């Protein structure tokens, strides 16, 4: 049996408050679990049911938000002393969508190149990360740019990508004391994850570089997040001069 199919068949549905349910496919970071979550998102997009409000994928599943009153009116299920009719109807609709999922062989898409200026003012923690692993900063950069990365989810802040695939040689704990403000575009490491801050926010990731790309694009109403779950990434090292040139182009693009 295909691994993704096994995860799909073992999916668990449970209530999350009065108007939401969570579909869990496992409890590990796994590309095959991501396939399940993306497949369910596609089903929800293509086959929305009455009362469906929105849905959001995570590392291990999908949370579905719904109007319990609408679903209760739509339901022909008998009353239940423990679970509301709205939840049971929503769960039944989602279960039916899960049963209709069939996996086909996926083609790996092209990698999205993320230019990063490493170290210095752009990556103030690069030397600390290198020291933690008894490496040189150049070795950390070489390993980071050589990884095969996959975006698992967008969260924490608009456009913030949680990225798996960080080589274990440079996995580094978060900072003991988070910073109050991290510049937009900062690329960091937190445990076995890597990612980039789309906005200036507080955070505790180890900052090793910065990208000039605007990860959150509020001017693009159809695609405000540059990255999406399922995207494959490649980090590319650039010079400070190249950073400034690309940053100017991004700023100009945001004005249009």
UniProtKB/TrEMBL annotation:
Q: Which gene encodes it?
A: pxpB
User: Which NCBIfam families does UniProt cross-reference here?
Assistant: 5-oxoprolinase subunit PxpB (TIGR00370)
Keyword annotations for this protein, in alphabetical order, are: ATP-binding, Hydrolase, Nucleotide-binding
Q: What InterPro entries would the database entry show? A: CT_C_D, Cyclophilin-like_dom_sf, PxpB
Domain (Carboxyltransferase) spans 11-227
* Name of the molecule in the record: 5-oxoprolinase subunit PxpB
Please state the span of the N-terminal signal peptide per the UniProt entry: none
Q: Does the keyword ATP-binding apply?
A: yes
In which domain of life is the source organism classified? Bacteria
**Any one Gene Ontology molecular-function term assigned to this protein's record:** 5-oxoprolinase (ATP-hydrolyzing) activity
Organism of derivation:
Acidaminococcus fermentans
Q: Report the EC code(s) recorded for this entry.
A: 3.5.2.9
């Amino acid at each position: 049996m295909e691994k993704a199919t096994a995860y799909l068949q073992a999916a668990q549905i449970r209530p999350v408050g009065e108007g939401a349910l969570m579909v869990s496919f496992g409890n590990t970071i796994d590309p095959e679990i991501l396939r399940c979550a993306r497949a369910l998102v596609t089903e929800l997009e293509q086959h929305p049911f009455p009362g469906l409000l929105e849905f959001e994928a995570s590392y291990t599943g999908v949370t579905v938000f719904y109007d319990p009153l609408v679903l209760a009116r739509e339901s022909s299920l008998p009353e239940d002393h423990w679970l509301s009719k709205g939840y049971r109807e929503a769960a039944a609709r989602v279960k039916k969508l899960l049963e209709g999922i069939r996996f086909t062989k996926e083609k790996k898409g092209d990698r999205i190149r993320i230019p990063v200026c490493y170290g210095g003012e752009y990556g103030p923690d690069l030397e600390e990360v290198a020291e933690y692993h008894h490496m040189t900063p150049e070795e950390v950069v070489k390993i980071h740019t050589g990884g095969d990365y996959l975006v698992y989810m967008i969260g924490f802040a608009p456009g913030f990508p949680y990225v798996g695939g960080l080589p274990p040689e440079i996995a580094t704990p978060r900072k003991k004391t988070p910073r109050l403000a991290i510049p937009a575009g900062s690329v960091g490491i937190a445990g076995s994850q890597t990612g980039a801050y789309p906005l200036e926010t507080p955070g505790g990731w180890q900052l090793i570089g910065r990208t000039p790309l605007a990860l959150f694009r509020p001017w693009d109403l159809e695609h405000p997040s540059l990255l999406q779950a399922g995207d494959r990434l490649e980090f590319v090292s650039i010079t400070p001069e190249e950073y400034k040139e690309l940053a100017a182009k991004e700023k100009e693009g945001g004005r249009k």
